[in-house]
Amino acid sequence: MTAVDYVVVGQGLAGTAVAWHLRWRGCRVLVVDRGDPDSASRVAAGLVTPVTGKRLARTPGYDELYPAAVAFYRRVEAETGRHVFTARDAVRVAADERERAKLSGRTPSASAGVVYPLARARGSPEAAEGSRPPLAETEVDPDWFAAPHGAFALSPAGRLDVPAYLDASRAVFAADGGFVAADLDPGRDVIPEPDGVRLPRFGRRARGVVFCQGFAGRSNTWFPDLPWNPAKGAVLTLRIPGLAEERVVHRGIWLAPVGDGLFLAGSPYDRDDLSPTPTARGRDQIVSRLREFLRLPFDVVGHRAAVRPVVAGLQPVFGFHREYRRLTYLNGLGSKGALTAAATAAAVVDLLVCNF
Ligand SMILES: Cc1cc2nc3c(=O)[nH]c(=O)nc-3n(C[C@H](O)[C@H](O)[C@H](O)COP(=O)(O)OP(=O)(O)OC[C@H]3O[C@@H](n4cnc5c(N)ncnc54)[C@H](O)[C@@H]3O)c2cc1C
């Protein structure tokens, strides 16, 4: 048995950030991932946006989470030699006069302020909903987009190239034996002991395990009662001849340039069908919403779907097993993993390193 400090199960946005923070704290880490091609992280567009959702409120804690995310991705870039995060303001096209009033800050916000997401339980429900400061008006090209109610700058914003980030991180982990591609069975492969865990099939002993399985964690027998509220989403890849917009454009759905004349578009929320299979319904929802504001014809050249790991409360959750404290999980990154993973994983690693 080789000793490591921690085993991280899952190398999506959650597990990758946990592994980096552990490594930066001097821990020896083994990451185990089975390579689900339709995990949320492999399908996600990686958008980091201050204002989302129907309320058009600023994401609670954004002013702390965004700089933490950028600093984290820049450090990963320095270690991997690969560019993964592009900071660029995005645009929100107002769908009607009501939205325009909200975006320009003319309607009073229900919020009392912002709170750090993990502190939701301590903040008032109002504060946790986010504030609604006025946004600056911006232009979109009228040949490309219909915006009769105006457009507003979303700032600061950016996009994580998630596959590049995951692959580059994996290469660094694998280079020193810190990564293994395998399907780990939590109930059979992880044997808790008083001072740690044993993973006989992997020939490892560790101080603890962090399960970062996303929606697949729903079948983890150590943690059967997370309050799941998952939501399937879909992303289309589009070819849009003549469109040279470099910003991500939001209008209920979003359209994101990814280079080579290609754009990603998404993403609906489906709480009934929780399979990762792309559906005609998901595709039609995106296409019809897109046609409401995109003036150019387009071809759909790709279509993927995945389930967002959302839990009740809409915030990331970290927990210890009731009896075996060396078994822990980080999950619930929901629809904002690219924004929240860095700061959340840093907080988790603080807890781990201080407790074990
Ligand atoms: C359509 C869609 C679009 C999205 N767009 C955005 C966006 O633009 N911006 C944003 O911030 N977020 C977005 N999200 C949300 C984002 O994808 C999630 O917040 C994030 O990816 C969750 O990461 P995770 O690591 O918790 O889970 P996952 O991405 O599901 O990763 C879990 C990993 O664990 C591995 N695994 C699971 N079980 C095992 C096991 N037993 N053994 C070994 N390995 C295992 C899987 O292979 C996988 O690699 C989107 C999600 C969807 C579905």
Protein model, in words:
By secondary structure, the protein is α+β, with helices and mostly antiparallel strands. The protein folds into two domains: 262 residues, FAD/NAD(P)-binding domain; 78 residues, D-Amino Acid Oxidase, Chain A, domain 2 (2-Layer Sandwich). 27% of the residues lie in helices and 27% in strands. It has nine helices and 21 strands. The strands form four sheets. Strands 1, 2, 11, 12, 13, 14, 20 and 21 form an eight-stranded mixed sheet that branches. Strand 13 and strand 14 form a beta hairpin. Helix 3 packs across helix 6 and helix 3 crosses helix 9.
> What is the SS-derived class?
alpha+beta
CATH class of the largest domain: Alpha Beta
- What's the helical proportion of residues? 25-40%
Strand content: 25-35%
Bound molecules: flavin-adenine dinucleotide
What does the radius of gyration come to? 21 Å
**Full CATH superfamily name of the largest domain:** FAD/NAD(P)-binding domain
Task: Give the CATH architecture of the largest domain.
Answer: 3-Layer(bba) Sandwich
Biggest pleated-sheet summary: 8 strands, mixed
Reading the helices and strands in chain order gives EHEHEEEHEEHHEEEHEHEEEEEEEHEEEH
Instruction: Identify the quaternary structure here.
Output: single chain
Low-confidence stretches: 108-128
